[in-house]
Design a protein that fits this description.
- This protein is α/β, with parallel strands linked by helices and about 300 residues long.
- The chain has 10 helices and 14 strands.
- The chain has 2 domains: about 200 residues, 3-Layer(aba) Sandwich (Rossmann fold); about 70 residues, Alpha-Beta Plaits.
- About 30% of the residues lie in helices and about 30% in strands.
- A 6-stranded mixed beta sheet has the order 6-7-8-3-9-10, with helices on both faces. Strands 2-1-4-5 form a 4-stranded antiparallel beta sheet, covered by helices on one side. The protein has a 4-stranded antiparallel beta sheet with strand order 12-13-11-14, with helices on both faces.
- It is elongated, with a radius of gyration of 23 Å.
- Bound molecules: adenosine-5'-triphosphate (ATP).
- Adenosine-5'-triphosphate (ATP) binds next to helix 1.
- Keywords: ATP-binding, Nucleotide-binding, Transport.
- This is ABC transporter.
Length: about 300
């Protein structure tokens, strides 16, 4: 169980993380979203025990994380630029990790070679960016972490490798209850993987929700009227965006499906449709709702 309690972090007097509270249960895949500079990396670094918060508590299984060897041994942090020891080959790096991580699994390391077919004697720094990323996942998964912290992890991986890695991650969550905290700007990837999401904005956690609940809370509505648009159709509901496409009005509406249906049906539209939103659309509209550059294109 990961607990972040009223955590704040300042850089040069400026708050990068503001009073964030978050609990993530074991076996959860938590997707951390946010605009550039929102504080995602800062939060992940504190959670991996590499950066100390200025106030609040960061706990894994009730133990403080910062510089706590015992806790850090059960976690693996894969930063946005993977780090390897200078000039090391894959095998040398594996040997190094086997001495550091108590749960290092030699058999799994060799099994994973089927997925990551890179010769063990290759020097890691000479590999391409995507291949280095593969090595990082390969080594990370062989340490059998209880908590895997991933910062923009799919950068540089080709589509086939992305799928392979996604499968490996889901398998570890299903089989041994691994917890994953993943930050990414690739919302499709998060949508495929995560069961919970949080959105950071200006250092504040503005949303944290079960992904299914989040999707059940925002809808795309298409309506059309033969004649004039009745007065008051936008009153009493929370519209995040509205656009006109010919005679059809497309609205993004916050709220539960039955109440949105009931609201529009009282105006007897000639066309009425409700469509699901992707996570990417939800993110854009939620961010718009909190004032992050989005324009309402209908006067
Ligand atoms: N070492 C540092 N010194 C000073 N300020 C920093 C430092 N690291 C980050 N910041 C600032 O803290 C804020 C949050 O940065 P952070 O890297 O956590 O954001 P992020 O959400 O990961 O961004 P991105 O999506 O662009 O990678 C930014 O305003 C950034 O400029």
């Amino acid at each position: 169980m990961i607990e972040i309690k009223q955590v704040s972090k300042l850089y040069e007097g400026k708050e990068a993380i503001r009073n964030v509270t978050l609990a993530i249960g074991k076996g959860t895949i938590f997707g951390l979203l946010g605009s550039n500079g929102a504080g995602k990396t800062t939060l992940l670094k504190m959670l991996s025990g590499n950066l100390i918060q200025d106030s609040g508590e960061v706990l894994i299984d009730r133990l403080h994380v910062f510089e706590n060897r015992e806790v850090k041994n059960r976690c693996f942090f894969l930063p946005d630029t993977p780090y390897f020891l200078a000039n090391y080959t894959i095998l040398q790096m594996a040997l190094f990790y086997s001495g550091v991580y108590r749960k290092w699994n030699e058999e799994r390391f060799y099994q994973l070679q089927e997925i990551f077919p890179i010769p063990l004697q290759y020097k890691i720094h000479k590999l391409s960016k995507g291949m280095q990323r593969q090595v990082a996942f390969w080594l990370a998964l062989a340490t059998m972490p209880e908590v895997l912290i991933l910062d923009e992890p799919f950068d540089g991986l080709d589509p086939v490798m992305r799928k392979n890695v996604r499968q490996l991650l889901v398998q570890d969550v299903a089989e041994r209850d691994m917890t994953i905290l993943i930050s990414s700007h690739n919302l499709r990837e998060i949508e495929d993987l995560a069961d919970h999401v949080g959105i950071l904005h200006n250092g504040k956690l503005v949303i944290q929700k079960d992904l299914a609940d989040l999707k059940a809370d925002v809808h795309k509505v298409q309506i059309a009227f033969k004649h004039k648009i009745p007065h008051g159709i936008y009153r009493g509901i929370q519209i995040l965006d509205k656009q006109r496409q010919g005679s059809v009005i497309v609205c993004i509406v916050k709220g539960k499906e039955p109440s949105i249906k009931a609201h529009f049906n009282q105006f007897q539209p000639d066309i009425f449709d409700m469509l699901p939103l992707t996570l990417e659309e939800i993110f854009i509209y939620e961010m718009g709702d909190i004032g992050y550059v989005i324009q309402n294109t209908l006067a």
